[in-house]
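Final report, closing paragraph on structural work. Over the funding period we assembled a curated collection of sequence-structure pairs, and we close with a single example.
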Amino acid sequence: MVLKTLNVEYEINGKTATWSKNDDDIVNFTEFGVGDSFCFKIDTANEKSGLIFCKSGRYELQTFSGKKIEKDVTIPEPFEITGSWTVQFPIKGTVKEVIFDKLISWSDSPDEAVKYFSGTAIYQKKFNVPKDFPIQRQRVFLDLGRVNEIAVVKVNGKEQGVLWTLSKTVDITDVLKPDAENVLEIQATNLWCNRLIGDAHLPQDKERQPNGTLSAWPEWLQKGQPDPYGRETFCMRNLWKKDDALQSSGLLGPVQIMITGY
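Its predicted structure, as stored:
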């Protein structure tokens, strides 16, 4: 019941930096353009509390008291969850179900309902852990790779939290079934601008000035009716134009199961 903070001083390619994190936070070393090449985590969720290593290698650590620790860590390569995904998009009061043969940005879809979609779509997939993947007595993480912008993860019906930071990784050790089929559900939410760009292709309200600002409240809005042109959004001012670039959206992956070591 004591909050612990990990203060890390590290060196990469002759350059030094520091990083501080609290219990159960993952520390990704992203300085100097090296990406998530390795990471530490303070683990307090199981009986074997301590540091979790996320990449193989030889580590030399020094505690606050001055004690030096050397440790060789060997971690199996992650396996990628590949194949098609079922994705559900709530559109105009109905649910549009789409099969993605591979993970792509919604903005790259030829289907305009998906291309200009803004909101939360649900990805669903079933997978089995390979028999030769050594997950016994290890901490197992699900890494979503790239998600634009926010994800809620469920594994076998149990929610694993909201992922909104740069790192889209969650510990699934306690819910993963090593010898049976697993059900993965990911709720991905993007930004609003793609729907605004899509609606910008529709005829302009007569109550708007050429710069997109309102000169009067639309009659359909005052009467609580739908936009007569089929527009799904309404803003006081149109900040996005039809020729503006769409933002990358949804789950892009790669989605991987990763093992860590102590």
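Residues 5-73 form one domain. Confidence is low (pLDDT under 50) at residues 31-37. We thank the funder for supporting this effort.
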